[in-house]
Specification:
single chain; alpha/beta; Arc Repressor Mutant, subunit A; Aspartate Aminotransferase, domain 1; Aspartate Aminotransferase, domain 2; 3 domains; seven-stranded mixed beta sheet; four-stranded antiparallel beta sheet; 16 helices
């Protein structure tokens, strides 16, 4: 009986956890791994994909697969480990004073007569007040969603999952940018959806790439981030949005537009303004407010509302009543807008820090962006740089976490700027600059 690929992946994960496999260790080729384990090559491929999904390994073009998540062990290291870990992977902006603002907005909800209603199930359609508030929050120059088209999820990830589930059948094909949000990769795996990487340039996804992929085999939908793309930080200009909308019209393909970071930008209207009947816009409060406040939104075309609502219900991805009422209060009393303004000021400060600390390196970012894309200098490779940073107590995200398909990871890392305090961020970026200015050989300790 062929061993389940998850059990094999668990065994490799145990070796990583125990330190028998360490950061930077190269795994055997999939063919060699299959021979050693006595499993099929296809099973070995699934094992490696599962390890990558768990964030335990990374792949690099022409070099192989490397461990990236083993715990540190005493002994030789790239550098002495820091006392405290600085997380530049997770990216949740929190500004001073926001907790007090949020607390003030909860006062009305805590009255017993109001709280009783808030503790009831919300349903995917929420309440009329919640729909009006959400539509007002998501409105941008050139686009104002119809409140009747707003549906609610527990968080943004669930809104994405529901949109994909509604549009793409099991075994179907979902087009994504060649570098995409890692959670979408996990969602596709759970839903049995095949991801199709689509080429992108400095303006975003290429419409010709979508058309070519659809001609090869029909796409059921495409997922993309037109504004402040994660990880490349690009914002698609109006001309490209219009061209992409034309491609959606001609093919009948629907788009899932992730607008999670758009609140920081004064960029163009959403893609939905150009292709309203073909686009589901998803968003949430986690970046606008705090990671524990997870109301998600999906704005659907009229013909797709029932399908997305059914997906939300079947996945148990509906919003909690209290969370939805709290979100409605914070939107209508101006708390969300006030915190959003504070975060725009905060991101400007953090961008200035990054500009100073990483000057002279090939770093791509946007003045309104809470992250940066760093194309590493030679002779550094992403896996060894991630390991070197980890030895100094700093976590960063390798390009492989975002890459779709085999052998597509650039030699780069994403640097999250949002989570640590500004002083800690400055120190951490200075340390990363020191590492990058040296070489892997210089960093090794005999």
């Amino acid at each position: 009986m062929v061993e389940d690929y998850r059990a094999v992946a668990d065994a490799v994960a145990a070796d990583i956890e125990a330190g028998r496999l360490r950061p930077g260790d190269r795994l055997a080729t999939q063919r060699a791994f299959a021979r050693h384990r006595g499993i099929a090559n296809s099973t070995a491929n699934r094992v490696y994909r599962e390890l990558a999904r768990r964030g335990l390994v990374v792949g690099e073009v022409g070099r192989g697969t490397f461990v990236r998540a083993a715990p540190e062990r005493p002994g030789p290291a790239l550098a002495e480990p820091a006392v405290a870990r600085v997380d530049l992977e997770l990216n949740y902006p929190v500004v001073a004073g926001q907790t007090a603002l949020l607390g003030e907005g909860l006062g009305r909800l805590l009255r017993p007569d109001v709280l009783e209603g808030s503790l009831r199930p919300a349903g995917v359609a929420g309440t009329p007040a919640a729909r009006e508030a959400a539509a007002a929050l998501l409105t941008r120059a050139g686009w104002a969603p119809d409140p009747a088209r707003v549906l609610f999820a527990g968080n943004g990830r669930q809104a994405i999952a529901a949109a994909v589930a509604a549009l793409v059948p099991t075994g179907g094909r979902l087009g994504v940018e060649a570098l995409t949000y890692p959670v979408v990769k996990a969602i596709a795996t759970r839903l049995g959806v095949t991801l199709v990487p689509l080429a992108q340039d400095e303006d975003g996804l290429l419409p010709d790439a979508l058309l070519a992929a659809h001609r090869s085999a029909p796409l059921a939908a495409v997922y993309l981030q037109p504004t402040l793309h994660n990880p490349l930080t690009t914002t698609m200009p109006e001309r490209r949005r219009a061209e992409l909308a034309a491609a959606l019209h001609s093919t009948g393909v629907h788009a899932v537009e992730d607008a999670i970071w758009a609140f920081l930008s004064d960029g163009p209207a959403p893609l939905a303004a150009w292709a309203p009947e073909h686009t589901i816009v998803v968003d949430s409060l986690s970046k606008r407010l705090a990671p524990g406040l997870t109301a998600g939104f999906a704005v659907t075309p009229p013909g797709l509302s029932d399908r997305v609502a059914a997906a939300l219900r079947s996945g148990a991805w509906t919003s909690a009543g209290f969370a939805l009422d709290a979100a409605t209060c914070w939107i209508t009393d101006g708390t969300v807008a006030a915190i959003g303004r504070a975060k725009r000021e905060d991101v400007t400060l953090r961008q200035e820090i990054a500009g100073r600390r990483l000057a002279g390196f090939s770093v791509r970012t946007d003045p309104s962006c809470y992250f940066a894309w760093w194309e590493l200098p030679e002779p550094w490779r992403a896996d060894t740089f991630v390991a070197a940073a980890a030895r100094r107590g700093i976590s960063v995200t390798p390009a492989a976490a975002f890459a779709v398909g085999p052998h597509r990871a650039p030699n780069a890392v994403r640097i999250g700027l949002a989570s640590p305090p500004p002083g800690t961020l400055s120190s951490a970026l200075g340390t990363l600059a020191e590492i990058a200015a040296g070489s892997p050989d210089d960093a090794m300790v005999d």
